[in-house]
Design brief:
174 residues; 20% strand; 6 strands; 5 helices; globular; Alpha-Beta Plaits
């Protein structure tokens, strides 16, 4: 089993679509670990605020199989592959980490660059796995978050979200 982390974001009916993402990931992968949820401004364009979180699962699925599952969930959320990069969206699910795998792609570059670039990806990951080490830098996610936080590039607001169905013993957003 490999520990996989997904970044999830939405700024179009975000509560509805992040709930859909969590439920679908649970249905497709089994028990999920859910980070706190954070609100942040749209990055790269003017739009409604996003809600973002990270979900962790253990899986034997390949990267290609995971990509197919992400595409299927995007379809359920009425997202099309041609939506563009910096636009409002019902749902955006990204594979952030696949264990300690480092790959330049295709199909993906892992770990995903977003992990160290955007607070909305790093902070929830640091909340869930503070002592895990980034496979390229060797630093913990808590260390990376502290460095980003000291730069003042983390305009995030924690949001209390009560998902309708949670795995017992897993983190609950508060």
């Amino acid at each position: 089993m490999t520990r996989v982390y997904f970044g999830i974001g939405s700024n179009v009916e975000p509560l509805k679509y992040i709930e859909l993402a969590v439920l679908e990931l649970r249905a497709r992968f089994g028990p999920v670990e859910i980070s706190p949820v954070y609100r942040n401004q749209a990055v790269g364009f003017v739009g409604a605020d996003f809600l973002n979180l990270v979900v962790g699962v253990d899986t034997n699925k390949s990267i290609n199989e995971i990509g197919g599952e992400i595409d299927a969930i995007h379809t359920l959320a009425n997202r099309t592959p041609n939506d563009g990069k910096f636009v409002s969206r019902t749902l955006d699910i990204d594979l952030l980490l696949y264990g300690n795998l480092i790959t330049e792609g295709p199909p993906l570059k892992l770990p995903r660059v977003d992990v160290l670039k955007y607070s909305f990806a790093l902070k929830p990951l640091a909340d869930m796995a503070p002592n895990f080490r980034h496979p390229e830098t060797g630093k913990t996610y808590a260390e990376h978050w502290l460095a980003m936080e000291q730069q003042g590039k983390h305009a995030l607001q924690r949001v209390d979200v009560a998902f309708t169905s949670r795995d017992s013993g897993h983190h609950q957003s508060q």
